[in-house]
Structures are given as structure tokens and as C-alpha cells.
Amino acid sequence: QVQLVESGGRLVQAGGSLRLSCAASGRILSVYKTGWFRQAPGKEREFIASITRIRGTTYYTDSLKGRFTISRDNAGNTVYLQMTSLKSEDTAVYYCAASPNSGWTYWGQGTQVTVSS
After folding, report:
1. How far apart (Å, rounded) are the C-alpha atoms in residues 49 and 41?
2. What is the pLDDT along the chain (117 residues), one digit of tens a residue?
3. Is 57 helix (H, G, I), strand (E, B) or coil?
4. Are 50 and 33 in contact (CB under 8 A)?
5. Which residue, among 28, 4, 26, 7, has the nearest Cα to 18 in the 3D structure?
């Protein structure tokens, strides 16, 4: 089992920046990649970005690439999401998820990001 805990979500003004953290514990060595997702009210959960634990290879959804950056610490235990030039439409619950091989098996509880215009 892998446990994920997100933090860093808060109210921020449009145009501002925010960094979210996802701390992993448990069977971390089983994790191949970690990703960030978000879900806005009334919308489906959408993929933002992912990063592999060992090589640090990143992948982004095209619409957010350039404003959002995913990174990890050297141990691969914590994954970050740096968000810049935030817009009101970025308001959502942000989740991190971990994948041992294929599919997103483990999920955190989410952290709320609210962008005020």
C-alpha cells in the first residue's frame, strides 16, 4: 500500500502562484510514477501532469503545460506541482495519485485550490 497526502491548497488571487505537495509513504519503491489531477465542481477529474519516480521523466496535458510544473525531491518521496499565472478556472480540488505500473492505483484525499478573480 502507498499513502498519499496532499497539501498546499488555499485561496489565492488570480495571477498568483501556488505550490502543492504530495507526500508519499508506505511501499514507495513500488511506485513507478506519480501524477496530479484536478476536479472542478460539476466537471470530470482531469489529468494535469505526471513524473516517474526513478528517472524523473515528466508528461503534461497540453493545455496546462507552461503554467504548471511537476517535480520531485531526490528521494522521490514528495512530488510537487508548481502553478503560476493562476486563473479562476483553475479552481478545483487537486489530487495526487501513484501508479505501480499501469493505472492510477493510489489516491490522496485532495487539497482545495480556490482562485479569486
Report:
1. 20
2. 999 999 999 999 999 999 999 999 999 999 999 999 999 999 999 999 999 999 999 999 999 999 999 999 988 799 999 999 999 999 999 999 999 988 999 999 999 999 998
3. coil
4. yes
5. 7
Number of Cβ within 10 Å of residue 111's Cβ equals: 21
Cell 480556490 maps to which residue? 114
- Tell me the three cell numbers of residue 79: 512530488
Distances (CA, A) of 20 to 1, 42, 58, 102, 103: 22, 22, 16, 24, 22
Residue at grid coordinates 503560476: 84
Copy the grid coordinates of residue 99: 501508479
Burial label for 109, CB within 10 Å (0-12, 13-18, 19+), is: exposed
